[in-house]
Design a protein that fits this description.
The structure is a single chain. The protein has a single domain, classed as Flavodoxin domain (Rossmann fold). The chain contains six helices and eight strands. The strands form two sheets. Strands 1, 2, 3, 4, 5 and 6 form a six-stranded parallel sheet that branches. β3, α3 and β4 form a beta-alpha-beta unit. Bound molecules: flavin mononucleotide (FMN). The site of flavin mononucleotide (FMN) has 14 residues, from α1.
Length: 180
């Protein structure tokens, strides 16, 4: 399967982007790509013309279209999703939306205790409205990031095994959605 990872963080040392890299390592039999969303312009309908979008938005939309499944990793910013992630979802949603029917899962990691739970529920709501087919369980809220990662690797055994199980569920779910 072709899986596209979308991180809500633009930070080089992002825990959430690191989580996606770990997902790629845990799914070696699948083609895993992480999308670039940092160069997307802010959503603005004036930048759309004759069904065309700015080049970074076209690139993201093409990557989503080509992907069999999407894995979102979101930080929590002020109890919601970061603006760059909402911006990316907004570009992908413009008609014709490239998100409808696409299988996806959400995960997230934070230095604090909540593990991005509040942001994930905001993202779940928005993606649900856009008819994205979301994996319901297990939910992956990773708190205390500094204790779970070593040099970008998810080294906490319990968390790693839990995340690996979620990814296996996700792959089975995505294949089922694809088969209809
Ligand atoms: C604007 C802003 C708002 C934040 N709000 C929250 C928050 O509501 N809850 C939380 O757990 N962490 C919050 N944080 C801290 C982030 O969880 C932390 O910076 C985290 O490392 C971001 O994810 P990343 O490592 O993938 O970049 C906030 C950070 C920023 C920059």
């Amino acid at each position: 399967m072709k899986i596209l990872g979308i991180s809500g963080s633009l930070r080089k040392a992002s825990w959430n982007t690191a989580l996606l890299r770990n997902a790629a390592g845990l799914l070696p039999e699948h083609k895993f790509t992480i999308a670039e969303i940092g160069d997307l312009p802010l959503i603005n309908q004036d930048l759309e013309g004759d069904g065309k979008f700015p080049a970074p938005a076209e690139r993201l939309r093409d990557q989503i279209l080509e992907a069999d499944a999407l894995l979102f990793a979101t930080p929590e910013y002020n109890a919601s999703i970061p603006a760059p992630l909402k911006n990316a979802v907004d570009w992908a949603s413009r008609p014709p939306s490239v998100l409808g029917g696409k299988p996806a899962a959400i995960c997230g990691v934070s230095p604090g205790v909540l593990g991005t739970a509040r942001a994930q529920y905001v993202l779940r709501h928005t993606l649900g409205v856009l008819s994205v087919q979301l994996l319901a369980q297990p939910e992956v809220f990773i708190g205390g990031a500094a204790h779970k990662f070593t040099d970008g690797k998810l080294t906490d055994t319990v968390t790693r095994e839990f995340f690996a199980k979620m990814l296996q569920n996700f792959v089975v779910f995505a294949q089922r959605v694809k088969l209809g």
